[in-house]
Amino acid sequence: MKHTLRITLLLVGMFLVSQLIGLGVLSQYVEKPSLETGNVTFSALPYIERPVMAETESFWYIIGAILIGTALVLVLIRFRRIFLWKLWFFLSAFFCLTAALAALLPREIAALIGAALAWLKLYRPQAWTHNLSELLIYPGLAAIFVPVLSVRVMFLLLLVISVYDMYAVWKSKHMVKIAEFSKETNVFAGLHVSYKMSSPDKKQTKKIPMDTPGSRHSSRHETKSALLGGGDIGFPLLFAGAVFASLAVKYGLLGGFLRTLPIPIFAGLALFLLLVYGKKDRYYPALPFLTAGCLAGWAVVYLLS
Asked: By CB atoms within 10 Å of each CB, which of 29, 82, 126, 247 scores lowest?
């Protein structure tokens, strides 16, 4: 088991909460599902515009963005351009947070809160502010990209990105390098939970009675980190969002929301199994497992629809 059961359940719980928030944010941006055209109309975003592209273009757009973005990050790591890395991260977090918050708040207030959370995330990092902002960033990302995606495109993207994730973690290991740099600079895209574990003191060869002075030092605490990358949260949400948009046309917002739920549930189950059966202190590509969960959930959605 990679982490304690409590930390595992916490990580899976936050993953599920982010997925549910994402579907809720998307429902607030839906203006009018049309049975005649089979499409959903989404309202405009605050301060930014969605990319306009055809279905086939969206696949290559996202693949290209991932490859170019990864290359730029590796260049920033190579030359230690931490300021540019943080600036890029701040702007990305700000626009995604604002898009998510504007689903319920006036755009000006959403922008102020988004800027505050992004600043706290970078310059006053705390566990609760970091993870709270992460729970909102990916719903904002979904509000930006789901309207230009389809279920077919997201299905292909999940398969391609899963293969890429395995290569990046197990073969080239550049994703591990990015994760380590992110922890070093306190700029991590994804959920991050630190916890302490007691481990026997290897120097202690003789048992000391519990009431003996100094017995509290017979064990030491080691700080561990439970991580879940941003892509592991974002791509399942984009897939679930694309399915929700297609179902909302036929079943309405509430019906589409409820029928989409098997996807995040099965993805969360896949994540739980990965964390339970994964080994400690080892990086795993989570997307292949999450993709399997998403597709299992999609099969259930198909059967129920």
From this structure: 126
